Structure prediction request, 546 residues.
Amino acid sequence: MSTENGKEAVLQTESRIPLRPLYGPADGAGKSYDTELGDPGSFPFTRGTRPAGTRRGWIHRELSGEGDPRRSNEQFKYLLGLGQMGLDVIGDTATMGLLDPDHPFARHAVGTQGVSVCCLDDFRELYRDIPLDQVTLSHSLPAAFTVAGLYSVASERGVSPAAMRGSVIQSPFFCEDCGYAVHMPFRLRLRLAADSIEFSSREMPKFHTFLEDTYYISENGIDAVEEMALGFIEVRGLIRELLARGLDIDSFGPRIAILVNCRMDFFEEIAKIRATRRLFARMMRDEFGAKDPRSWAVNISVHTSGLSLTAQQPVNNIVRGAVQALAMACAGVQALEVSTFDEAFRTPSPEAHIVGLRTQQVVELESRVTQVADPMGGSYFVESLTDELERRIGEMIGNIEAMGDPAQLADRGFFRRMFDEATERHSQGLIDGTLAKVGVNVHAVAEEEDTLLRDVAERKFEPSRERIEWMAAYRAGRDARAVEEALRALYEAGLDPRRSLMPPIIAGTRAGATNGEMAGVLRMAYGRPADPFGVLPDPIAVEARA
Prediction:
């Protein structure tokens, strides 16, 4: 035991893995280098997916998107001018819930936690003057509708969709329990995910439409083991769905990626990345039979933890972001976004964007940690922790899958209970001090003394209510008949589970239908109300079917 602030601190990781004060040669005894580690760029990719000597850096980007698409487009250009290498776009709450900005339940928060995107005109404005085939475009937006928007904009601009790089998150298993609720039945969510992945494997082969997002589920307070176990549950479920359709594993395997969280437990987060690469490689090769080595080597991108940041003493958050960025540089990830000092209050301000981006640039260019592949490899402690994380993640995957179909577990509220328990556990840790948080339960200061950066962090961001008037003009100016025909075609496709939903979604997008309208008719096709809140009429009239 050690003593911290008068309390006895238990030696353990944030995931409650017991630790010893010292690790030595005995902790690595019997380990086979070739089967457990391997050189970087070779199976099982524990030490990295790129061979030693290749570029060790990562794609620098910061979370972006606020207000309407025009405002976000200006933000993108500002960030690219600062040296950002790719874009990472997040939608506002309405966009993520597949509600249009003029929905009565959306209008008071439009554009306040991300960008409002609901139709093809929005995608046109969002990426105005952005070279679609030269900048990686990553999205926390509804996947199928985002693929349709990107595909349509690229085609209009004469850019081959096959040349586009980037990603879009998939979250069919957990979205209803973690704040991304789209109010669709599980089978429809899974179908949209699989349809968009299958479509992209043919039409946008360089685009990561199969991006597993464990970041958003872990912001509920789940630990590193739970985060990756649940992520693998979703990845495995999607793979099985695609294989059941007759797809070859290597037709989509090389474009599977994972967006993970990075907490403050420096060594555990490094070990988590290494264990994830190894688990993924073995799963793809030995369980699912992938033959292409690219299918074994998962791309991992990271968003540092917003949950680790505090509203108290926001200046401390700059240090937290730097620690997390350094951990991920040592782990060898492919892309990184740093949550900076004001994320406890809002999406990043211009000042926070500069801090986050400069943090990455300083870590990469000045610390020299990227000169050697897997600099933590061979550490008695890190290798032992990697093994233990791999064991615990694999064990949890097995235990959950042994309970039955994950879809049924989701419907029975199993995952929601996990998230609720994690939230309670995290809160209790802050209350009882077992989770030390500088400025909150240790080294706190009086409220009147907590002034550094607070004026920037607490800057108000007003909803983009002008979007409501814009939507009225947009609806009035489009071809109503073409929209209705497209929505009816999408409804009919929704009734037939053998049909891909991507062609009618693309057609609807091009006809001028909104994401909210298209989501509504799909809910109707699955026997649900078009508007999950019951305040809007159905987009189309349909006859009841026996």
Remarks:
- Residues 1-6 have pLDDT under 50 and may be disordered.
- Residues 53-432 form a domain with the TIM Barrel fold (CATH 3.20.20.240).
- The chain has two domains: 53-432, 478-546.
